[in-house]
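Journal club prep — side note

Before the paper discussion, L.F. wants everyone to see what a predicted structure for a comparable chain looks like in token form. Sequence:
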Amino acid sequence: MTQQYSDDQLNAAVAAFAGGRVTYDEGARVTLPPAPETEPMVPLGVRVPPALAQRVRAAADQAGVPYSQLVREWIELGLTEMAGDLTVSVAVLRRAIAHAAQSGQAA
């Protein structure tokens, strides 16, 4: 949770800094934020027709996930299938099965 400061508190801090009344404690213990649990993401632009975009967003809403996450999972599944690789996360596999069942594509 981030702490909110009032305008008066911010103005007082600015005045103290500008007036040289700010001190630093070089020996103070600092707790660094935890390392991110996921790898960084890069944007991948894909142009699709509006109707397809609506279908993707509707599928994501139905799955209860952001559409970008659903598209990443679909890409991962497709690439895994193309490579003949059997390694895929359980979450992605479950979502693919649920989507197939909901769309009537289940065998």
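L.F.'s comment for the group: The chain has a mean pLDDT of 81. Keep this in mind when we get to the figures.
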